Amino acid sequence: MARERAGQDGDGGPAGNGAVRAAARTLREDRGPVRYGPPAPDPGLPVLPELADVLAAAAGRSEPEPTGGGKALREAAAAYWIRRGLRGGPEHIAAAPGASPLLLALIAAHGGDVLMPRPCPPTWIPQARLLGRPAYHVPTPAECGGVPDPYALLETVRRVRAEGGRPRLLLISVVDDPTATVAPPELVREACEAAVAEGMHIVSDETWRDTLHRPHDTVLLSPAEMCPEEVTVISDLAGALTPSAWPVAVARFPDTERAAARHARTLDILTALGALVAGPVAAAAAHALREPETVTARVRLAAGLQAQVAAAAHRAVLASGALARPPQAGRHLYADLGPLRSRLAAHGVTDSLELEEYLTERLGAPTPGGHRFGDELGALRVRLGTGPLLGSTPVQQMESLTAVEPLELPHVARALNIFAAALGELR
């Protein structure tokens, strides 16, 4: 069958980030409830001082931001997208305190069933499940994640309809979590055209678009450039611009009457949820979205650093005999330890939940298993973050950020050696 119902393979929702050992004990019993959802990959870098100053200067604000964000935040978001070729005014923008409530409101504002690639970001499945919406996974092609194979998408739509379903919404991420890949433009075009031809609206998660490892060599095409009337774009600013501790995400709606109605419905839902961006956070987010040189310089340096560290981690994964696509963006990679199954079994690891527990303990950092991303529980896949390899203190992290050869720094080399050793012992 070309599609599978999201959550039917024992994925049970995303899993643990708090006290690792306590969470692990609970996970063994219930296979990971939503409340243990893994955090986004840690940048491993201190907060940009300029953003902290803006936040502190706004700390005395007593009035809340309006639902969907105030004018300054929405104008900054609109200008951010205009610089990326997506024109539109602040009236087409909505903001929320993080990607999860924003996506929840967007799914609720659209009727019908939800389709998403396999694997997918860990927050997508719980939002559909919380709303009681049928959600289905569609396989991705071999070269990348984040965007479904167009033929598998059409087959999934056909089968869902044959079973009485109503496929109405497709979620995609051109720059993907968890696979850290960038979908080629021709695939994006074919998948989007197939979805639109079948009457589906597209939500394009572009959280990681500013984290490309080689921005001058990578062609990134937003679905909204191809299907401007049928694509809503969302971005969690924690991907590149703001700390994850300051939750804020923005959405850009198409300039159509139907989109205006969905925008209004989204704002109604955010109001009902009480999902308002905190005033000081909105001020810092607007500043980051305006992209002054200090912010863009940090983004460039961070992406360049992650490119080097992720490449080294990828080499260690391949040297262990495991598989992984070369990371092209973000601060993570997605490894398939299936070739090491017999050695892992000797350590009591037979599925991705046990692999998550094993590597989290060995590496001392969250390493969520593939079941958190919609992959089968029996597949031995895991998302490996590279942020923890940059240092354990702000001083070490800043040294990594500014070094000409960060891999030669003692603390980075030591962290990479530990990372490689944990995988190498499974050869």
TrEMBL record:
Domain Aminotransferase class I/classII large: 58-300
GO molecular function, one term: transaminase activity
Coiled coil: none
Reported cofactor(s): pyridoxal 5'-phosphate
Transmembrane segments: none
Biased composition (Pro residues): 36-46
Annotated region (Disordered), positions in chain: 1-46
Ion transport in keyword set: no
Keyword vocabulary terms for this entry: Aminotransferase, Pyridoxal phosphate, Transferase
Family note: Belongs to the class-I pyridoxal-phosphate-dependent aminotransferase family.
Listed name of the protein: Aminotransferase class I/II-fold pyridoxal phosphate-dependent enzyme
